[in-house]
Amino acid sequence: MIITRVLSAILLIVYLISDTSLNLSYAQREPGQAAKEQYPKGYFMFPIQPGKQASLSGGFGDLRTNHFHAGLDIRTGAVEGYNVYAAADGYVSRIRVMRGGYGNVLYITHPNGYTTVYGHLKNYNTAIEAYLRRREYSQKVWEIELTPNPNELKVRKGEIVAISGNTGASGGPHLHFEIRDALENAINPMKFGFPEIQDSQAPVIERVILKTLNAYSRVNGEFGRVSMAPKRSASGEYILPNIVKAQGIIGLELNTYDRSQTSPFRMGITALEVEVDGKSTYKLNLEKMPFDVSKDINVHIDYDISQTDGVRIQKCYVADGNRISVYETDKNKGRILISDNQLHSVYVRVKDTYGNTSVLTFSIQGEAPILQESEGETPLAEESKFTGNIATSITENTLAIRAKNTKAPFAVVQNKGVPTKVPLSYVGNKEAVYLYDLNKGIADFAQVDNSSALIGIKKEILPQIGQFYTEPNLRIDFNNAVYDTLYLTTGMSGNRLTINTQRIPLKDNITVQWTPSGVSMSPKTGVYDVSNGRSYLGGVWVGSAIQFKTRRLGSFMLFTDNEAPSVRPARLDSSYLSFVISDNLSGIKSFNCFVDGEWVLMDYEYKNGRIWSIKIDEERMFGGDLKLEVVDNVGNVGTYQVNLDEYFKQKQVQKSKKKHAPARRKSGSGSKSKKSRRR
Predict the structure, then answer these.
(1) Distance from C-alpha of 527 to C-alpha of 546, rounded to nearest angstrom
(2) Ranges under pLDDT 70 in the chain
(3) Distance CA 177, CA 188 (A)
(4) Which residues pair with residue 555 across a beta bridge?
(5) 173, 478, 511, 550: which sits with the fewest CB atoms below 10 Å from its CB?
């Protein structure tokens, strides 16, 4: 490790002397860049191991859970403890400590208006650490956010400002690094010219999906998705060898990602363009990203697939409700309109930051939908129910009714007893498929021949302010939280509530007030999201009803948590205190440690449940009465108390006895041990 530090220091000196020339050579790799927004290449130095080739585990624009990745994840060889350097002169404008997110994170604002961000840090340099600890002790809090004045914590380019770590929602030791502009937009750091990052590999196009976007559209004669794996031609282009037949409004979706020769990880692409018959229909340019709408990634991707298969597929069109401003489209917002019987060419160009490009080409044959039989099986989407011989699903404002072993010329849907005939659309996989446009009206019941299914749509929830729904024992306030029209379904049984499915995204919280049946009201009874595992949401009891907020649809249950958190000492001595804490249900909310009546700051790593002491005065030793209280999210308190002076004495006695105890006979040294071993 010492050798590594020495080499890092040498590399830093070389970097500071030669960073201008290094970045000029990099800038020449970007032909045509002058026409685009200009970023100051050479202004920022690489924040960790500068001058050494870097390997990334994440890049700008990666598709992450509920957000686009806003920076670079720089690998540190699965270890903590590397020096983190200020990328340029400036001042510390923000310090934050939190259990999740970026963990220990530092923001440095620079004279040119940009701010650099350094996340998942182990700790800060001496000056920043002292500034932070004084305020944590003053406020008696661990999680904190501070905004120093410009003259309080000035830094110089190349100054060590922190040590790399693994804090917050980090999957392993690394440095998260961002560059933001004065409007808090995240800018692709690779636009600033860091020679430490090399990438000569073109993006990969792994899967192509064509999806029908209304009840009157078809792909290869069917409604739903058609997924295809492209092949590489002799020229290196990706192709779909078979012509796709389609009609109506079609959405193109891609599973595409970038690769680098210095990393085994998949990275996000930063540019994508689609042309249909030689005309541009959709352009994506991920050069910058506003934070306030980054969560709209859930309509940038096919959210349904991400929830069912765990794969994030990019839409090559702008979905309803998407507020992200990184697209240029035609009047159809990138949707492909096929309204004739002609052959149409599709050309897709995918790029990474360095201009490495992959191309996909395929053809679509326009074909009017006709009643036909097909061999493929179309997967149900978003919401599906199966009862007897009938299965129903709702996607893209369309109710699909699939009935086995029938070719009945029509199905019947009802809404409040009013019937509507729905003609047979096609037959596939031994199922008759009937498609009903929900824009014509909602439906609560479907029938084909003598088989029927309850659809259960309670109400249309529109993407606008003031939307709510009530029924006995339930009220839901949506308050403009839906991206597109939601065909609301609900179910209540005992301590369980279901609202649609987790496969439909929300852009904001909804408020639910629910009166469960057969459940005793208790302040320690709360709501948990059980759609995928179990996560605590909480809630407030209002009489016999519980009110809670959620940003996910799906299944919810009530659980009562009467068990206090577990507290176990890991190490106690006069200079250092550490414990392992855990909670089996609602989760840890807070903790406070007092020694000899004085509050002691405890740091926390939630991933392993460890907390440990951070002194404000390193010379002061711990002694006297210790009391640690750990509180869970429903108010149960786990307590550990001990007199440290007596504890240290007992430990010393135990250590002395162990030192002078006679040596034990080794197993296997006598016949009795051998006999025991044979047993």
Answers:
(1) 8
(2) 1-36, 369-388, 659-679
(3) 10
(4) 498
(5) 511
Residue 646's CB: how many other CB atoms inside 10 A? 10
- Kind and range of the H or E element at 611? strand 610-614
Termini Cα distance of the chain: 48
Cβ–Cβ under 8 Å, residues 238 and 232: yes
Q: What span, in angstroms and rounded, lies between the C-alpha atoms of 369 and 384?
A: 24
Measure the CA–CA gap between 181 and 482, rounded to whole angstroms. Answer: 30
pLDDT tens sequence across 533-586? 999 999 999 999 999 999 999 999 999 999 999 999 999 999 999 999 999 999
Give the whole-angstrom CA distance, residue 42 versus residue 107: 20
Closest by CA to 4, choosing from 80, 64, 68, is 80
Q: Please state, as a whole number, how many other Cβ atoms lie within 10 Å of the Cβ of residue 279.
A: 8
**Separation of alpha carbons 554 and 531, rounded Å:** 6
Closest CA to 536 of 528, 546, 544: 528
β pairing state of 373-374 and 418-428:
parallel
389: DSSP letter: T
Q: What does the DSSP 8-state code read for residue 482?
A: B
94 closest CA partner among 205, 34, 180: 180
Angstrom distance (rounded) from CA 562 to CA 585? 9
Tokens of 529: 């999201």
Question: 384 has which bridge partners?
Answer: 393
Task: Summarize pLDDT for 332-384 with one digit per residue, the tens.
Answer: 999 999 999 999 999 999 999 999 999 999 999 999 765 444 444 444 444 44
The count of C-alpha atoms lying within 13 angstroms of the C-alpha of 213, restricted to the half-sphere facing its C-beta, is 23
CA 609 → CA 46, 373, 536, 578, distances in Å?
Answer: 33, 58, 17, 11
Q: Which two tokens stand for residue 287?
A: 């050069």
Phi, psi of 143 (to 5 degrees): -70, 130
The CA-atom distances, in angstroms, between 670 and each of 661, 666, 677 are 21, 9, 11
Task: List, as one string, the DSSP characters of 484-540.
Answer: S-EEE-EEEETTEEEES-TTSEEEEEEEEEE--SS----TTEEEEE-SSS-EEEE-E
CB atoms near residue 259 (< 10 Å):
18
